[in-house]
Amino acid sequence: MAAELALTLAGEPMQVLGDRALYWPARQRLLIADLHLGKGDVFRRAGIALPRGGTLHDLQRLTELIARTQARSLWILGDVLHGPAPHAAWRAQLAQWRTHHALLEIAALAGNHDRVLAQAGLDMQLLPDQVEDGPFLLRHEPATHPALHVLCGHVHPQFKPPGTTRRWPAFWRRAGLTVLPAFSQFTAGVVPTLQPGEQLIACVEGAAIALPPA
Predict the structure, then answer these.
(1) Domains of the chain
(2) Listed residue (98, 121, 109) closest to 180, CA to CA
(3) What value does the mean pLDDT of the chain take?
(4) Are 149 and 136 spatial neighbours (Cβ–Cβ below 8 Å)?
(5) pLDDT tens-digit profile of 8-41?
């Protein structure tokens, strides 16, 4: 099983990475969605047990992807945060990680969980709600566009093998639209009912597996 899968979106060569990211070679840009920094802290304060270290693990995964692709930029398609940011425990981890990637351009679209992103003081560029770039429209929530191929997140698509209870994060390919899986390790999601021609690319233990189209 390969850690990456080459495909063409809107005439543009792209790489689907099995660790829940999309790489755009022409821009040397890594694209992820739904990082949800601080989600574990929010859940633990609510009395819901989640393992600690989720943010550090996600940042380590990003480090490996940046090293593998030699990406010069990282764009986050919304939901950078998941809860308050001013005194969150993950900030020190993120700051230390950022010092090791000082030359990396980081930019983010605001998602529905990012109400305080503009005031969070993170070392990243804030983008408009949607950005047109080449043949793509980048935004957080899925929506169609008459001329551009939409890259987005928000719904956390997953693949559930028939006859099992296990779920795997997945890219959801639709006509004119590609929905990225949640990058955060601790996220629920939806198993989409595929329409004819739609396809999932499952992210299984770091491998990108293209499933048969509906």
Answers:
(1) 4-210 (3.60.21)
(2) 109
(3) 90
(4) yes
(5) 999 999 999 999 999 999 999 999 999 988 765 5
- Residues 2-28: b if buried by 16+ CB within 10 A, e if exposed: ebbbebebbeeebbbbbbbbbbbeebe
Kindly report, residue by residue over 121-132, the tens digit of the pLDDT. 888 999 999 999
State how far the alpha carbon of 41 is from the alpha carbons of 95, 141, 206, in Å: 17, 24, 25
Return the half-sphere exposure (C-beta side, CA atoms, 13 A cut-off) of residue 103.
5
Residue 121, sorted as left (phi over 0), alpha (psi -120 to 50) or beta, turns out to be left
C-alpha span between 22 and 65 (Å, rounded): 10
What is the identity of the amino acid at 153?
A: G
**Residue 40 burial (C-beta neighbours within 10 Å; 0-12, 13-18, 19+):** buried
